[in-house]
Design brief:
8 helices, 262 residues, globular, alpha/beta
């Protein structure tokens, strides 16, 4: 399938590792010009160099801490300086700490909302005028299956990502006639470093081994395994492609059947 992404400018915040990095790699493989960003400038540069050396697309690394005021707008400006107008924005950010709803504090919620909602909206507002003017744009958010089926002990993530989903669904209806689509991809259990950390936290809480926790988790997934970052990234690329021009305001789960609903 021709994705129509060759030469397109793609911004992927939080992409020095995990699902963000897998998505950046997938876009570069389609010939897109990709900006990799994260708090670690050297790592962002290294990953961008690695992409350029093996993919048909180009890549640059930009240091960005989205918890800092003005960083979202600055990242957009630097991306435009590097490759021109942004045509695909992948919304992504690190997950907040694990914890129960009973232990959640207003201060913790405020912190989670900053990274999961406020800065994501700033990114959207910075790129959207250009997308609408050009009558073409893709906004794809990396969410969580916890939006549809809350995940135990991830109260902050469940809350913040659900809030972002509500905003994006509203936005999708407002910009569809401008040629801009807005969608979310919801990962279930994907084999990333964050999944490893969460499994370790569950193991520590239960007094069990990490392998036992992982075995039980895999047993709860109809596919019988964790997904790979590459499988997830393929869904992100599809929703950004020209083939998905008539898909907007949707959530696509990549979870091996974990959530028991359509």
């Amino acid at each position: 399938m021709d994705t129509g992404l060759t030469g397109r400018t793609v911004l992927v915040p939080g992409s020095t590792s995990g699902l963000g990095l897998a998505s950046a790699r997938a876009f570069a493989a389609e010939g897109a010009n990709v900006v990799i960003s994260g708090r670690r400038a050297e790592l962002a540069a290294e990953e961008a160099h690695a992409l350029t050396s093996v993919s048909p697309g180009s890549a640059v690394g930009i240091e960005c801490d989205l918890t800092v005021t003005g960083s979202a707008e600055q990242l957009v400006e630097q991306t435009i300086d590097a490759f021109g107008p942004i045509e695909v924005l992948v919304l992504n950010g690190g997950g907040p700490p694990a914890g129960s709803a009973l232990d959640t504090t207003p201060e913790a919620v405020e912190s989670a909302m900053l990274t999961l909602v406020q800065q994501q909206i700033r990114l959207v507002r910075a790129v959207l005028p250009g997308m609408r003017q050009r009558a073409w744009g893709r906004i794809v958010a990396i969410g969580s299956s916890g939006i549809q089926q809350p995940i135990d002990n991830l109260a902050l993530s469940n809350t913040g990502r659900a809030a972002l989903a509500a905003y994006l669904k509203t936005l999708a209806g407002e910009v569809a006639s401008s040629g801009v689509t807005v969608n979310m991809v919801l990962p279930g259990r994907i084999a990333t470093d964050r999944a490893d950390r969460l499994d370790q936290a569950r193991a520590d809480k239960m007094g069990a081994s990490t392998s036992e926790v992982r075995r039980k988790a895999q047993a709860s997934i109809p596919a019988g395994r964790y997904g790979t970052p590459e499988e997830f990234a393929a869904a992100v690329v599809f929703l950004a492609s020209t083939a998905a021009s008539y898909i907007t305001g949707e959530q696509l789960r990549v979870d091996g059947g974990l959530v028991r609903s359509f």
